[in-house]
Amino acid sequence: MLKVWSSIITGAFLLGSVQAVHAAPQDPSAPSGGFAPQLITEENWSAPQAVTGEDKIWKYLESKQESFQIGKSVDLKKQLKIIEQETDEKTGTQHFRLQQYVEDVPVYGGVQTVHINKEGQVTSLIGSVLPEQQQQIPRGLTSQISEAEAIAIAQKDTEADVGKLGEPQMERKAELYVYLHNGQPVLTYVTEVNVLEPEPIRTRYFISADDGSILSKYDILDRATGTGKGVLGDTKTFTTTQSGSTYQLKDTTRGQGIVTYSSGNRGWLPGTLLTSTNNIWNDGAAVDAHAYAAKVYDFYKNKFGRDSIDGKGFQLVSSVHILKRYNNAGWNGKQMFYGDGDGVRNRPFSADPDVVGHELTHGVISKTANLEYKNESGALNESIADIMGNSIEGKNWLMGDLISIQGLAFRSLENPKLYGQPDRYQDRYIGTEDKGGVHWNSGINNKAFYLIAQGGTHYGVTVNGIGRDAAVQIFYKALIYYLTPLSNFSAMRVAAIEAATDLYGKNSAQVDAVTKAYTAVGVN
User: Fold this and answer.
1) Which of 72, 116, 335, 425 is the right S-S partner for 522, CB 3.0 to 4.6 Å?
2) 86-119, pLDDT tens digit by residue?
3) Which of 115, 192, 290, 359 is labelled catalytic?
4) Is 382 noted as a catalytic residue in this protein?
């Protein structure tokens, strides 16, 4: 393993927009706020003295059973199962994540987080529960079609839109859930179409297990911004691996490795592992992708003690030169890929650490809260990716400013309105475009983060900033412990307050800043 210096050469290109890409139609019935009730509580509930350990969770949940709209006759332990349990060593808080089931079939989005502080009190519950009155599945819980048939239905539907599909980028599978569709529970297969050809596509399908009909679908491929700024000409040091007489763009010193490939302007992943005979690297797009992936890994490891995106050393794979003149980049659920741009408007898309950090943070989100990528939960998904991506270098409050040759950016955490985003909840977008405004409404939470970190007066509310580092710690803890797939902005407020309380105490300046910041952006 060797450290190597590499020089990156750049030229000048014009700003431009993204080429058209496949986008699955929006279905407003898809879950995100579709469950009733949305559970958000803040309190200090104490169990009877004789109750200890995990039993506190069940006693607490039983005390809330009517609020869940689940009848007293229902055995909660059969409906709700603890799927994760972790004690935060720094704060002593115990964090539990539960999944709801109906007769052993998981409820889509039916996830809750419950938290016990070091004093043994239950402090909060955040999540969604399918009420008893909506648990009667009209056709029962026996599937009438197979997993393979559900996968084939999704593929055929996508092919009807874009033509013959290339090889799948992840293992094809379909999983059964109880899914709330138009207010009615339906036994449903959830599957994905994930390909690179004829164009990058990642669409989630909800297919009735009764008759194979497509209940809903939407695009979940997260792509980088559509304006381009390429390689900047700076010199970087990064780790490579010697193999015989050649050197590989492979770092084995971090987790299970950081590996960078070239797709050779074709539609295949990961492509060919990049090598050099003299350890001098002239492929600027590859150098940036490799070096910035390492920077993101170090950010999560050094700041939060997290070993890669899953906390277990997940290998970070990047592929540059994907397709020809491709004006985008993205995370496909398995790895990163970067286009070269069209050479006129855009340059290679791996040149901005904000963008690399943003995209890899989507991987962290998928391994933790798994925020559904639409509507309010999707806006939170985008916002947290912005917050973490922007904080890796923390030089300013702009996202993607290094991409634009004209000195622009695609979002501002300080002033969302500068790039057409709302900066308070009252002004949020409520339509179906952009998956319910995931890229637009993210400005609301971005502004809250900015106020917490930097302070200021916003719509008459004054916030005393606590610094970026403390703010980032709060949002990270809120993400990994408190948020759930269908969390909305109100849940984000509670999650951030609870995380700040864990870290700094109930009456701290940090809790005050979080509370006032969300009030300032209209989230209560």
Assistant:
1) 425
2) 998 888 899 999 999 998 999 999 999 999 888 8
3) 359
4) no
